[in-house]
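assembly run, all chains below
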Amino acid sequence: MTEEKVEEKFKPFHLVLLPVLAREKALKFLDPIDLFEISLCSKRMTSYVRALRIQARHHSLILAAGQFSVSVHFQRKRPLFWDFNSFFSRENMTDTRTIGGIKFDSCERSIRNTLSIDEFYCEYPEKEIGVTTVSKHFQTIFHGPLDIVVAPYFHEKYHILFSEFKKCQELEICGTPVPSLEAMHKIFGEMKVTNKLVLRPETVDEYIIETALDVEELNLRSATWMKREHLLRLNCKSVQIFRTNFTSEDLEAFAENWMRNKKSVIERIRFDWNSGRVFRFHMLNAESWDSKKREMNYMYENDRGVLVRIDCSEGFDMERDDGLIGTFVLETVDNTQYLYFLVWRERFPERKRIEELPAKLAPFYKQLVTINKNHPDATSFERLLSNPDLTPTEFMETYRILRNMDAENTGDSLGKQSRRYVFNQMKETIVA
Amino acid sequence: MTSPASSSEVKYLIESSEGNTFDVSGAALRQSNTFNAMFLNIGADGPIPFTDYNEATLKKVFEYCEHSVNEENYSGPKHQDDLSKWDLNFFNEMDQKMFIDVINASNFLDIERLTSYCCERIARMLRGKNTQEMIKVITLPTAEELEAKQKVEEKKAAAAKKVAEKAAETAEKTETLEELPVQQLVQTTRNKLTRKYLSFSNE
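ok done. output:
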């Protein structure tokens, strides 16, 4: 006799009648896409979802050439996308959603697709209005900073975006055509960028981008608008500027200002330094490299998490009263000269990195103990490499020998593959 | 019989809004933080009055508590596939009103497990649905219904206004000085004089 299967029957109920705690608890069990859907039910539902104070890692709004999407990203939940791109032909764009008073007639909801994201596809003729409206609603219900990527040249009504959003964490202007003075006013007139500003196109000399001067990370295709006064006001952690009109005297003034200004947060500036200009200090007391004061290579981690080293053996050092060293150094890459100004928050970064290596390698040694226990077929070299008492130099030498012997060793056991995977990661950590 | 003892054999009497009483085991009742805070240490002299809730709701609440007495480690949200036959019957037996009442009672009695258990069900009801479907589940009026409701209310208000105006007119016509009490008589006379004075001064 088979047991009768009982289905869970759902009967409609009044969510608004629930006590606040129970309602919030129930809503917190939902994924962002469901919360988004329920927030569209009514203004009251929007306020209920907003009251959950769900923190988004960041909101993203892209209005570029051929890409019009809005998304919200979370620490632990799946991201939620709204794509206005009509590039993908969809068959079931028959849903309707009303957001911020605008009716989006051709929508399709796609959950947990191959990319493991929750997404809406939507066709709407006025992309600028569409992305602005949807992103505004996302930001209403999920709290978090906004990142904007926009190509003004390709979107006639891009200004709608900037009339709605006055503050963002990151702003990237893309496209090659130079934005007009009017466009610059529309974009930067009221906009405050806090973390990162990237301008891919060159910009007009007449417009001073005030928000660029104290953003955390600045990347400009051209900064001919920047005069000495702007250079002196520059207080960004990391700066990369191509095309400037700065002279050695401007940089000398900048260096003097840095020597005086203890509050400066500057860590790294890279100027495109054209060959026509001479880089020479007249007044400033700069010294050549002293290995007792700092290491040869300045180190920093780039956007991709890769450790970059800049050779500063030919640099000019300035030491401030508080012990901070700033270095000017020229670098030539493919016949182009770049001038760096680097601040040594850590005077001996490589030494510090080596000191921190044992702690970074410890988890790998733990993995190796487990692997060797489960697969006791390790060779003598592999056992040696699994020994935590090896210094990084000894590890690297042994690792090289092992790799050289690979041609002679045949057979790939699971244990060997697992160990090799861990050894490779250890090697990457050591030689980073 | 009530007792402050904490052994699971002890039974407590619960009183509902109808004044009816019924037994609940100490182990089940102790899942309620409200009960723990109010009665556990001092004991209750007579039935414990939970008179804001009816008998059926309270019985449903304590049915869950009795069932989950041995479920010490609550394992978080359950998906539809994880629900046992008992879980399904527990929910299916409730109508919309009772479901809300049980959540309210659970919230008042501060029975965390039951509240979570019911909230999971709400989440299951909503998960994967689009806005229109959600509106049906949480019985929110749609935009069209709201509009229709507003129109009806406006019509009603207009009709009520008409009736009130007509009533006022009739009242003024039929109003006789003899029928009014003295104070009202004085006030009415004063009002009439004021109106006369105003109309006179306007002329």
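The CA atoms of residues 47 and 153 of chain B lie 47 Å apart.

Residues 143-202 of chain B form one domain.

not gonna interpret more than that til we talk
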